[in-house]
């Protein structure tokens, strides 16, 4: 069953909340590593958890190119299985 955009967004926000990213509107353009202090392992964990929650898989190159919550959300909502 494919999730609609609202369901995907809700799921992504829930996962981000587990990583301390709330409220999303205040940090949506912040760089995960530069502004939010994430290290590569922590960021990879966040992306993996979002992929797992949405039952999607990104290429390693795509996962490493995502720099902000906004980019992650936009890509995951547009991504199709």
From TrEMBL:
<protein>
    <recommendedName>
        <fullName>Acyl carrier protein</fullName>
    </recommendedName>
</protein>
<dbReference type="InterPro" id="IPR036736">
    <property type="entry name" value="ACP-like_sf"/>
</dbReference>
